[in-house]
């Protein structure tokens, strides 16, 4: 069940990424990100009552930390993407973001994944880096600040997963409320500081889809961590770039490079290995 929930989380994150990216082509990326966080917050409220669980200090604390890490990472990521080669920033951030929960689970939490699980994790990390690579990027054109931004943003994305995994088991989805409130506050501050528009005119439908898919991914990942190992669940949920690539291929007719196609194949192989471990 943990494997299935993690894969569904990856699918939700991937769908959110593509629709959010298309919306950001029409409106400021910061404005779109703020709107996505607000939509996710509104969509989350009725679900909290259905899923149940008890709010607690731990739920608020770790949820807030997750929201701060994920949103801060996003702001740093956007700045790095604007300043340096996308072909460097994107795969580095994606790879680090996937490696953090895997390393935390295996090295610190004591997850026992075995040889098959280890191979699946390795293939999954390769898949994430390959699929996220954008042709034309070179480290020759990436300054120290850009590479550091990619590393820090990726680590922040990974810590988002780690913090959610640390939330109390009986807290239901309440940690996500803390995460969303902190995320909205951070993005609102960023939008005001950069003097961007608060309302995203012309991309409302895409933003609603992206916001609902994003919070659904968060919820599915949180539920997956309750029944599965962080190292496996975190890696599988981090395969969202594969989903985003396939959605873009189907919806936007974007072509896959040879490396990206190989990454998709590696992702499928990794999923099979990890599914067997988590069965």
**Distance between termini?**
8 Å
Total number of domains: 1
Order of helices and strands: HHHHHHHHHHH
| Estimated share of beta-strand residues | under 5%
- Structural class based on helices, strands and sheet pairing: mainly alpha
Mean pLDDT: 88
Radius of gyration: 18 Å
Secondary structure tally: strands: 0
Please give the share of residues in helix: over 70%
Number of helices: 11
The rough form would be described as globular
Which regions are unreliable across 5 or more consecutive residues at pLDDT < 50? none
| Biggest sheet layout | none
Walk me through what this model shows:
- By secondary structure, this protein is an all-alpha fold.
- Helix content is 80%, strand content 0%.
- It has one domain (2-278).
- The chain has helices at residues 2-24, 29-51, 57-83, 86-108, 114-132, 144-165, 174-193, 204-227, 230-237, 240-251, 258-278.
- Helix 2 packs across helix 8 (204-227) and helix 8 runs antiparallel to helix 9.
Element layout with pairings:
Layout (H helix, E strand, L loop, with lengths): L1 H23 L4 H23 L5 H27 L2 H23 L5 H19 L11 H22 L8 H20 L10 H24 L2 H8 L2 H12 L6 H21 L1
In short:
By secondary structure, the chain is an all-alpha fold.
Defining traits:
globular, 80% helix, 279 residues, single chain, mainly alpha
């Amino acid at each position: 069940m943990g494997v299935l929930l993690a894969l569904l989380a990856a699918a939700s994150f991937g769908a959110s990424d593509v629709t959010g990216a298309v919306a950001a082509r029409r409106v400021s990326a910061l404005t779109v990100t703020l709107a996505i966080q607000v939509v996710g917050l509104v969509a989350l409220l009725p679900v909290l009552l259905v899923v149940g669980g008890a709010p607690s200090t731990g739920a608020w604390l770790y949820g807030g930390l997750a929201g701060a890490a994920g949103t801060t990472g996003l702001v740093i990521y956007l700045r790095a993407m604007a300043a340096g080669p996308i072909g460097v920033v994107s795969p580095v951030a994606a790879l680090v973001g996937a490696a953090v929960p895997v390393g935390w689970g295996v090295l610190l939490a004591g997850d026992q994944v075995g040889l098959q699980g280890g191979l699946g994790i390795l293939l999954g990390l390769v898949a994430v880096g390959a699929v996220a690579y954008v042709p034309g990027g070179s480290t020759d054109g990436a300054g120290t600040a850009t590479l550091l931004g990619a590393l820090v943003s990726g680590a922040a994305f990974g810590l988002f997963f780690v913090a959610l995994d640390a939330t109390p088991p009986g807290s239901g989805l309440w940690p996500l409320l803390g995460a969303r409130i902190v995320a909205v506050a951070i993005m609102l501050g960023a939008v005001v500081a950069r003097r961007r528009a608060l309302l995203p005119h012309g991309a409302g439908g895409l933003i609603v889809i992206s916001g609902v898919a994003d919070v659904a991914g968060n919820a599915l990942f949180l539920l997956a961590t309750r029944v599965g190992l962080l190292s496996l669940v975190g890696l599988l949920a981090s395969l969202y770039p594969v989903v985003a690539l396939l959605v873009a291929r189907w919806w936007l007719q974007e072509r896959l490079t040879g490396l990206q196609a190989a990454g998709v194949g590696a992702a499928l192989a990794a999923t099979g290995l990890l599914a067997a471990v988590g069965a």
